[in-house]
Amino acid sequence: MAQLIGLDIPFLGLGPHRRSDDPFSLLLLPRSTSELASPKDRRRIRWEHNGLTAAVRGGARIAAISHHMRGHLEQVYGIPRHAVVDLPNGLLPGDHADVAPAPLPPQAEAGFLLAMGRAVESKGFEDLLEALHILSTQGERVPHLLLAPTTHTETLTGYQRQLQAMVHDYVIDATFLPRFSPIYRSWLRSPALRGVVVPSRAEPFGRIPLEAFASEAAPVVATRAGGLTETVVDGVTGFTAEARDPMDLAHAIGRALHIGARERDQMRARGRTLLLARHDYEATIRSYLRRHTPWAMALSAPLRGGA
């Protein structure tokens, strides 16, 4: 008894290589797809489709990390409903632990907005810069922006250079952070934080709002893109805007900048409650194992008792 779990896009092609006598079941867990991340790459999308289809024919299950991803897998990739299992994304208990505080850039100490994520167009960072430019032209005093569209590469990508040019051209008060660092997460706990902005154009799930909820950061401003709608509810756990709509995003950020202390505290509490109730990843995994691989839970019990 064993189960092989293929996590993310590189393993979606396992299906055609599985034999009928393989001594394991297969679960594929795509946290995104090329249709969402690289819609112009039709060759890769076909490869994913063929791999997922072959896997399902061989009896594999496909995990959906959000209601949005379930619909996406069923409608765009043609995965039968019976083959899709819900495995909502979330945070592990260790993710809730305090992160050692890192010094803020001096310009951010008086107040800042934070936006971070992978440096890809689907994250919508250019829409954020357009929105901040709109607010400035309307006379709004926009706090310093900590902008972290990150990669692990040594040199800037074309997309990062485009964002840098926008910051310069719009004269946006910003610190540009192109390299990934875990210290950015510590800034979610800073008392100088005025808001966390998630301007995604497409989002299978959206982990950053959960990071904010775990750190009691508020308010969160997010687009109504994909899985973000399941965590950021307008006026409840944050403020929302249409994806690819800088004007609407500017309006949502403006609302966030004028939030009162009581409403901020309420959003902190509601976000934390939602995180613990629906996005405890350890509880989600245990629930999946109990339902689909109960033998794994039975095998683990003696190990815990003998420890």
Describe the protein in words.
By secondary structure, the protein is an alpha/beta fold. It has two domains: 114 residues, no CATH class; 183 residues, Rossmann fold. It has eleven helices and ten strands. Helix 7 crosses helix 9. The chain starts with a strand and ends with a helix. The C terminus is likely disordered.
Name the features:
307 residues; alpha/beta; Rossmann fold; 2 domains; 6-stranded parallel sheet; 4-stranded parallel sheet; disordered C terminus
What is the string of helix and strand elements? EEHHEHEEHEHEHEHEEHHHH
**Content-based structural category:** alpha/beta
CATH superfamily of the largest domain, by name, is Glycogen Phosphorylase B
Cα distance spanning the termini: 23 Å
Number of domains: 2
Just give the CATH class of the largest domain.
Answer: Alpha Beta
Keywords: Glycosyltransferase, Transferase
Domain Glycosyl transferase family: 109-272
Protein name: D-inositol 3-phosphate glycosyltransferase
GO molecular function, one term: glycosyltransferase activity
In short:
With 307 residues, this protein is α/β, with parallel strands linked by helices.
List the helices and strands and how they pair.
Layout: E1 3-7, E2 25-29, H1 34-37, H2 42-57, E3 61-64, H3 67-75, E4 84-86, E5 112-118, H4 125-137, E6 144-150, H5 158-169, E7 174-176, H6 183-186, E8 193-198, H7 208-214, E9 220-223, E10 239-241, H8 246-257, H9 261-278, H10 281-292, H11 294-305
Parallel strand pairs: 1-2, 2-3, 3-4, 5-6, 5-8, 6-7, 8-9, 9-10
Helix pairs in contact: 4-5, 4-8, 7-9, 10-11
Domain Glycosyl transferase family: 109-272
InterPro entries: Glyco_trans_1 (IPR001296)
GO molecular function: glycosyltransferase activity
